[in-house]
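INFO  loader      accepted 1 record
INFO  loader      residues=729
INFO  predictor   begin
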Amino acid sequence: MKKLIIIILLIICNYIYGQNNLGGIGQWRGHFNNQSIRQVIKGDYLYAASPYQIIKFEKNNAINWIDKSTGLNDIGIEHTAWDKNQEQLIITYSNSNIDIVNGDDIFNINAIQLTNLYPFRQINGIYVLNNYGYLSTQFGIVVIDLIKHEIKDTWYPNNNQQSANTFNTIIANDSIFATTENGIWGCPLKNNWIQYNQWKRLSSFDNLNIKGIIQQNQILYAYNNSAIFNMTDGKQVYKINYGRIQNIDTTVNSININIHYPTNKGSLVQLNKDFTTSIIIDSNQLISPMQSIFEDNQYWVADSSKGLLRKSTQYEWLDLGGPMSNINATISVNESDLLAPFGNSYTGFAKLSDNKWSQILKIGNATLPNLNSSFISKKDKSYWFTTNNGLIHLTNENKQVDVILPNKNTGDYKSIQMDPNQLIWITQDQQGIVRQSENSWNLITPPINFITKGLDKFIVNNNQQAWMIAPNKQGIYVYQSKDVYGTDTWKLLTTAQTNGNLPSSNVTSIANDKMGSIWVGTDNGIAIFNCGNISSEPCNAYLPIVKSNGFNGYLFQKETVNSIAIDGANRKWIGTNNGAWLLSEDGIEIIQHFTKANSPLPSDSIVQIIVDPKNGEVFFNTKVQMVSYRSTATEGAIKQENIQIFPNPIPPTYNGLIAIRGLVENAVVKITDLTGKLLYQTTALGGQAVWNARTYEGRQVATGIYLVFVRDTDGNEKGIGKIVIAQGY
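INFO  predictor   done
INFO  writer      dumping tokens
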């Protein structure tokens, strides 16, 4: 059993904007797009389900997000149901795992997921009656005891005890009915149980490909992809000649039909008592409606392509938090904002600011195009983006759009960087490097024998060198301007021991650390460069050797390193196809390793990692979705001013780490009691130190007031703070 970690989202203007508060050190939060809502149901509150999280609508106009970062055990939510007797939410996943959320507790049932008895174990639906949940699966009906949170029995809807793919289960008139791959079967139900040899096949519905049964006003209706039938007399009561019935919901007076059309549109149609129809919501609004409910004189419709629609006197697509689409371009971050361009999946970008996501699709009357990469200027905090056709610069507090075309040459504008002189550099596909001067843009072309088709990722270091991933698995291109070493030079670095010493010519990522070292990721591990003047000095990589399972090997040998990010303590975050890793500054020590199995990561394939310099939050953009983790290191302050301690005072229910931030880099932090007795001493990771409220000996400190003394390594920058620990810590 897990405890549910509640993240309250403060909503402005009636569910329009959500605020996802940053948690303490070691806590996660999800940043999922919720364009695909599969279900909407009514329990103690109204719940909507996307593949990655449950959205719970509180009565005080707040939202709770329930996902792996708050206690769920999986992703890939397929079905939900409400158990009114125990007041709990049942969740099933695409891998057949099951969670039951009861208040702050989460109970996991993974027996179906782990069993080897059946080759196909998908859960197709949930039906709840009394204290039992009846799961329709690919092998039969699984009965769950909703009080004990365990599997009670397995029923096969036939009389030969053979597995049968069961699409839907319903209980009515003291009988259970199941739609299966072999037709509809019914069986008397006594005391919530069946006799195994009492199943009867409703042969009149054979060959109709029935996929579901519903009950409305004591009458059962069966439906397939195009028609609805009264099960009492077998008559067809509704048919469509165009489109597909995706699901049917009932109200007291009507049947509501969710329809998807081949034209990528959908509608919600009401079937009245006299079997006439009315259009509730037409195809101008919906694309792929999956489920609907009528609650508080409003329709709520889950659409798998557009999200959640609420219709009262008007239509309203609800902002459910997170980016509105997957992030397929380069993310950037500074102390206040995170920019996440949608890339080729959508026009514009999403922005995370003050813990709130917003979607920026237009600036004034200007519609933004597809954006390839983003960058936030350190000089004026303006936003820069690359597009296929030029640059976009958002100035005047990001309210004015400047569209810049640096040249008329063919080639998309890709990655963007800023050098120590606050000037912009860009890679232009098929051309080379575009570099900003005071009043113009200059194209710097590589030697004629360098391949330029496919130029994209690069970094610029303090020596005015541009390190680029060479196209076609050629290694690395390095361009050195004459600004520092006096010579314009291009160089190709390869796997040759005297010309690069890369572990592989297939370079996949690149980063510049705080000491000026260039960290290069390949499909065969990591290389580290510390090069000077490449026009006159050799430039060869150092390949770190680490010990694993008793054997020495190169760092991440035979692994593909998709991303490298540097945190405030110069530690390295590494993204691979096997999760995310935190390494020590020199790369020799593994500090943390996160995977889908041991963390809220939705996928082990990490596309990009980026670190917020202010609070140390690490964002993992995976192949599936994005999540973040609050780590222990932040950027160091230039001057020691105010010490920030979080949380403070320490509430009785808190048992996490205490963060002391706003420190100069690598500051020495001492914690004493009021008498001056030293209890603990540590060194800041970048600009942040952490304390677990224990002494050197591991003893938990008592309720009271404790003093924090800070100085830099030279003893010059000093500060003092106070920590109040409330009773019960």
